[in-house]
Amino acid sequence: MAVIGYQRVSTNAQDAQLQNDALTAAGCSKIYEDKASGKNAERPGLLSALDYLREGDTLCVWKLDRLGRSTRDVLTIAEDLHARGIALRILTGTLAGNYSPKGEGKFFFTVMAAFAELERDMIVERTRAGLEAAKAQGRTGGRPSVITEDVLTVAKARKAKGESITAIAKALGVSRATLYRHLG
Fold first, then answer.
1. How many other C-beta atoms are found inside a 10 Å radius of the C-beta of residue 4?
2. What count of other Cβ atoms lies within 10 Å of the Cβ of residue 112?
3. DSSP of 6-21, one letter per residue?
4. DSSP class of 84
5. Please, which pLDDT band fits residue 41 given cuts at 50, 70 and 90?
């Protein structure tokens, strides 16, 4: 009977060390990881963990929303685990403990899975509203352009003299693709 961990962060910029430490402390002999949104069905780490698990094993997650952000997906995963004789253990949050798909346990689990999905939807809504507000104020997201008006003027002058794009890009310290994009 193995205890297998699953950890997930939504982006490559996030760190899963907190989850990893908790899963290791919980006795997980193997930990699978994904760096993808919980709404994303393409989570190879989760699929590998589910494939690895056998009857009598336990799937351990740091928090319910790490398993997924879609109520349907979380419930499907939990029901599948139960049908296969695999326990689901949640380390933190309101549902900390072992999941039981019976009576009040199932009801509470379903409600908490719905809250996880609601939270994801609210994050998306707030992000979209923030981007729209910034756009209305004339601000755009993303990295600042390395091509200023001065750099573009120099690049155009060098190109007019017959210098190659590769040489210009190297001299100005920008990529060829960036230079091509700005020169048209």
1. 21
2. 20
3. EEEESSTTS--HHHHH
4. T
5. low
Q: How far apart are CA 120 and CA 7, in angstroms?
A: 17
Q: How far apart are CA 1 and CA 129, in angstroms?
A: 47
Q: Is the CATH code 3.40.50.1390 the one for domain 3-132?
A: yes
Q: Give the amino acid at 109.
A: F
Contact 71, 114 (CB under 8 A): yes
CA distance from start to end of the chain: 62
Is the distance from CB of 181 to CB of 169 less than 8 angstroms?
A: no
Do 19 and 28 meet the contact criterion of CB atoms below 8 Å apart? Answer: no
10 is catalytic: yes
Angle between helices 176-183 and 165-172 (to 10 degrees): 110
The count of other CB atoms within 10 Å of the CB of residue 39 is 15
Domain parsing of the chain, residue ranges: 3-132, 149-183
- Give me the pLDDT at residue 38, please: 59
148 to 137, 151, 159: CA distances (angstroms): 21, 5, 16
The pTM of the full predicted model, rounded to 2 decimals, is: 0.61
Check 10, 37, 48, 175 and give the catalytic one.
10
Query: How far, in Å, are 153, 156, 160, 175, 176 from residue 181 at the CA level?
Result: 14, 12, 17, 10, 8
Give the angle 101-106-110 at the CA atoms, nearest 5°: 130
